[in-house]
Design goal:
157 residues, mainly alpha, 7 helices, 65% helix
């Protein structure tokens, strides 16, 4: 809280540092469950392929990174056992990225953490406060240029 001699922190910086704090707690909880090798992009990739397998080109568009960068992330995740690549039944030249058993277990552990995190926040700050914060954050996401991609947004709601 700001005092008369100390100005309030910039809202954007608070959002950023809150996110970083959340991610640190998530990674610590995941490490305790044996997922101590998660990379920065792994969570987003796992959420995107959890609903259905995706081609690297599709992932590249959703992640807004180059196909080469996406391929490197997928190769690394495959090496660590979080995803597998299978032949695409509709295109013999393409491969579909899917979650492995380890990837599905990691997603389940992450979702459990998300739920327990929100439960703790609701107990500490009250449901109305968390509901208001959720509304503000959703509005902030909608205000971004182009808004939040509908397909990615669906992964988080």
């Amino acid at each position: 809280m700001a005092t008369s001699t100390q100005p309030a922190a910039d809202l954007g910086i608070l959002v950023l540092t809150a996110y970083q704090g959340f991610v640190r707690q998530l990674h610590a909880a995941m490490a305790e469950q044996g997922f101590d090798d998660l990379g920065r992009s792994d969570g987003v990739v796992m959420r995107v392929v959890h609903a259905r397998g995706r081609k690297v080109s599709e992932l590249s568009g959703l992640l807004e990174i180059s196909p080469q960068g996406t391929a490197q992330i997928i190769e690394d995740m495959e090496r660590r056992g979080y995803v597998v690549r299978r032949p695409d039944p509709s295109d013999a030249r393409a491969r579909v990225v899917e979650l492995s058993d380890r990837g599905r277990a990691a997603i389940a552990a992450a979702r459990a953490f998300h739920k327990s995190f929100e439960t703790r926040m609701r107990r500490k700050h009250g449901a109305a406060t968390i509901d208001a914060m959720r509304a503000v954050l959703a509005d902030m996401a909608d205000q971004a240029p182009g808004g939040l991609d509908r397909e990615l947004r669906a992964l988080y709601l």
